[in-house]
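Sample intake sheet
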Amino acid sequence: MVLSRVDAYVDYTTEIEADSAEEAVDLVYEGLVPVEWKHQGVVEFDALRISAIDADGNDIDGYTRGKG
C-alpha cells in the first residue's frame, strides 16, 4: 500500500502492484501508474509526502519521497 499526504490534514491510500516498496512509491510519485486514492484519515503535516506502508499504516523500510 502507498500513502499520499497532499491536502492539509488529510491522508489517502492506494494499492499498487510492484516488485518492491521502493518501486511502488517511485511509480506513484512520478505519476507512472493510474491510481484511485481512498480517504484514510487526518494528520498534521507541512508538505507532499509519498511513502510505502504496511497493513498497519507503518512505513516499510522507512522509504519515503518528498517532505512531511
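Comment: The longest strand covers residues 59-66. The beta strands are 2-7, 10-14, 38-41, 49-53, 59-66.
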